[in-house]
Amino acid sequence: MLAKASPRISIARIFEPRRVAVFGASDDRGKWGGRIMHYLALHGFEGEIVPLNPRRDMVQGRRCYARIADAPPIDVAVIAVPAAVVPQIVRECAAAGVGCCVIITAGFAEAGAEGVAAQEEVARISAETGMRLVGPNCLGLINLRNGMALTSARVLDVEKIIPGHIGLLSQSGALMLSVYNRAHDRGIGFSQLVSVGNQADLDICDFFEHMIDDPATTVICLHIEGLRDGPRLLGLLRRAREAQKPVIVLKTGRSAQGEAAARSHTASLAGAYPVFAAACRSISSLRRPAPNRSRRCCAASSSASTRDRSLPPRLA
User: Fold this and answer.
1) DSSP secondary structure string, 133-200?
2) Is there a domain that residue 222 lies in?
3) Which of 41, 171, 255, 269 is deepest in the core (most CB within 10 A)?
4) Same-domain status, 60 and 108
5) pLDDT (tens digit per residue) in 71-90
């Protein structure tokens, strides 16, 4: 197994970057890079926004750089460009000292042998250099406390986002955004949201651990298709219980058909659902069967935990 270099940046710092770079930046909000730039400005991101596009000098009123090597030091770079050029961009980011790359682009391990090889290449770069990766094949991450909206999703095209105390981690970007959108329409706020995608480096347990330690997050919601490390998840669930933070889990990929869908969606191995359910029962937990009910459970748990932090957390 390849030895990993020390991480360049903590997950807490990924959520609180001083400077964010956007590859494929554009004035056109119809393009992914254009929307990401727009949402960062619209929602008052507190750090510096650095556009990257070799064909432009200015983007949305900001100086645009042709290469990451020409830009000032970057904490987090968001990559939403064709899959064929992603490994080269990741190499350039690593050489430039970037702390973390958020790879929205799809077409990696979920898409066949060539995609598997490309994902292994970016994972190797991460391991060798300590540059963290979110994704690939994800819909980004959002910190509602500082306006860092690293996603191209149109659900962010609202006048004001609602900060709250619910953290949401999902292996499905579409499900994350659906839950967020429905919650927003009902005035329910979140602290942080993450779509982990294929988890070439950082995985759902890494972000779960961060949210347990995050004082602004009092309720944690997880959508799990498959796990790398089941014992680690159970240990974190126990830690969340000790921290008096309710946890709600939506587990998909229960049937053979669901497991196949999970594998094609984010290259996840769903595992046997009865084993997962038994592990949950071992810590007196429940599973939540539907996203709509999970959203309502999030809201109820957030309200309850705000009133009485002594309530035991539940896995639903």
Assistant:
1) EE-SS---EEETTTTEEE---GGG-SS---EEEEEEEES-HHHHHHHHHHHHHTT--EEEEEE-TT-S
2) yes
3) 171
4) yes
5) 999 999 999 999 999 999 99
35-55 per-position pLDDT tens digit? 999 999 999 999 999 999 999
Q: Can you give the length of the chain in residues?
A: 316
Enter the pTM of the model: 0.86
Long-range contacts of 120-124 (CB under 8 A, 24+ apart): 121/87, 121/90, 122/86, 122/87, 122/90, 122/200, 123/200, 123/201, 124/2
- How far apart CA 295 and CA 186 sit, in angstroms, is 10
Q: Residue 66: inside a domain, yes or no? A: yes
Q: 157 lies in a domain?
A: no
| 172 and 125 both lie in a single domain | no
Domain count, the chain: 2
Alpha helix stretches (DSSP H) within 53-155: 86-96, 113-129
